[in-house]
Amino acid sequence: MPLTRLPCACGFVWLLAVVAVAWLSELKENETISDVKLCSIKQISTGKMYRTEAEEMGDELFYAYSKPQILKHPCKSNMALYMGKALLLTKDNFRSSIIPLNIPKMFQVQTAKVSGAIYSSSCILLIINGNIYAYDYEDGSWSILLITEVFITNIYAEYCCYSSDYSCSSISNLILVYAIGGPVSDAVIYISNSLGFDFEELSLPQLKLLDGTFEGIFFFHSMSKFGVLLKNGDTARFAYIEPAKNETWGLPFHMSRRLHMLNLPGLKGFLIFWHEHRLLFSHNSGQLVEDIPIKEKKAVTHESFGLSGKSIYAIAGYENELAVLTTDFHFYYGTLGLLSTSLIKITEETPVTNGSAIMFESIGNVVIVTAVKDEDDPAYNFVVCCVNMQYVLMELEIGLKSCKAEVLRGDFDKKMHILDMGETLELSAKLVPQPSQLPIPIVTVSNPHSLGFQVKMYEDGYTFDGNTKFTINITLMQQHTSGRAHESFISDIKIPSLSTITLDLIERGMSCIDLQPPSGLISIGCNWKKKIIVRRDLTACMKKFLEPIELENNYTYIIEKGSYDPNYHSRPQENNVDLTIMYDYEELGCPGLVYYNSPWKPVIELWEETRRVEVVKAEFVLIEIHGLYTYNYSMTVGEASCVSQAQNWSSVIDASTIKGVHAWDRQLL
């Protein structure tokens, strides 16, 4: 669509603004200044606030770096953590005064210096003086998660906000913490697969074989690989590691000093790297890292931010957008994409203060927040300003080309889809070009080693204005079955993986703010909504041996000590005792009945939620989850004319480090 005037998403003001130090003392409560070219300024002060007794006795947290930063919650749009001279957690995007976070004296941290933070469930995990602490913002409690001899410097996690499905929700379970700066062969890394509540040291044998200075480790879910950032001299590159496989490498890029990294939401692999005089972007999880060019009017004036002579003061990114404030009050805005990444200078009339930080509140709406300490109150007040970038780009004469498309929509946008074994997945999108324009759509996936696709595009009628409508059909399949990739390129089909899929326009440009590229998440592996069940033609409820109400009421039964083997080898155990088992009626329903001493072959059905999909024709092996062995097979392997020894539970459990029924999975097939 062409640029139109839209109100800003910020609740109190219509346009974004920035703040000058000299003005703060002149602002009165609820007074708005509107003589700045781009914005209005609103001072937020919601009255006197008081600390609790526990907060009064705590040590006040502060950010370890000189320039403030705002950490937005990846899934809760109104929550953010301001990190500066104090740490201020907001649940309304800084629309009320806030008492800074204190850590209780009982933890004896004294100088509570915070060098990193992430969100995890209802907690914020913070690196305080090199150790990991958790603050639960729902009940206000604190806990220690990890104390080590290594001084931890970095913490990393990714998030999925598309679905409550396990493939999505489990992404944030994985957390990495580590110290950077030493040889990679000596790197100490801790990993948690439980939202940070249990850490263990990560063992990656490949790290011992790498050379260079360790600058960070990340798990990129959109590639299903660990990414290790290594620096040798003034050159850096990523090494990508899959357990039990050789590493692969990204392209080298110049890195004369340590870079900060920002992983943008959406799991597309969009990474921003920066320090004061450098600004780089990668659209593929660091495989290719390039400088972001700077534009003024229609032309590229600098191929990199370093050549502009500016220094970065604050930076913020959204899914496909970037905003930068410089130390000399300049404001830059940019768009991110495969072939359309650039920054443009918006104005030179944007003063900032030492207490200002920047964030995106929503698409096209940048917010600059300045924290102001109340002299008579423990709380901090705020000067909040919003820039509606669509309005700004329309008003300023900076020579932007109009957006080439009127409509770009995909039925997969902000959703998660599951691609099960041997299946294909059909997605659809709509494209309507502007009159006399010919936009070129491009489909990309973040993990081509696992996900293959085919695209068909065709004319599909006209709009009321006479513009041609196009339908884009996208067929997804596992790369293993696509027939289009070499074996060395394909990921192991037995290991579940993830990939994002994005539909973008080549040279989309900044004028397409309200035409963001649709993007979705594809889970390649087991569909957690599917399950197999044993068909029950006759149940204990049908014969009135048991009643459903009886089974629902904590029904138990006993397995006699001579009838089971907890080691699953079908052998009597001297130390066994009678087992009392709680029957799971919700999961199992009424118990099935079979006739004693009569051959019985289970009929296995595949169900997806409440829908029966098919009768399973595959071969299978039975196991009783408690080790019960009061049944036998009617044939041996030889009598069944098997050409090779069948897999069995005893040999699988003996060979696995995981004991019990979880020892056998798809990787053993």
Automatic annotation (TrEMBL):
Start and end residues of each CATSPERD/E C-terminal domain: 554-667
Pfam family, one: CATSPERD-E_C
Residue ranges occupied by any CATSPERD Ig-like domain in the UniProt entry: 406-524
Keyword tags: Cell membrane, Cell projection, Cilium, Developmental protein, Differentiation, Disulfide bond, Flagellum, Glycoprotein, Membrane, Signal, Spermatogenesis, Transmembrane, Transmembrane helix
Glycoprotein in keyword set: yes
Protein topology in the membrane: Single-pass type I membrane protein
Residues annotated as domain CATSPERD beta-propeller: 58-385
Protein's cellular compartments: Cell projection, Cilium, Flagellum membrane
GO biological process assignments: flagellated sperm motility; sperm capacitation
InterPro entries xref list: CATSPERD/E (IPR028751), CATSPERD/E_C (IPR053814), CATSPERD_beta-prop (IPR053813), Ig-like_CATSPERD (IPR055451)
Signal sequence region: 1-24
Family: Belongs to the CATSPERD family.
Function: Auxiliary component of the CatSper complex, a complex involved in sperm cell hyperactivation. Sperm cell hyperactivation is needed for sperm motility which is essential late in the preparation of sperm for fertilization. Required for CATSPER1 stability before intraflagellar transport and/or incorporation of the CatSper complex channel into the flagellar membrane.
Protein name (record): Cation channel sperm-associated auxiliary subunit delta
Lineage of producing organism: Eukaryota, Metazoa, Chordata, Craniata, Vertebrata
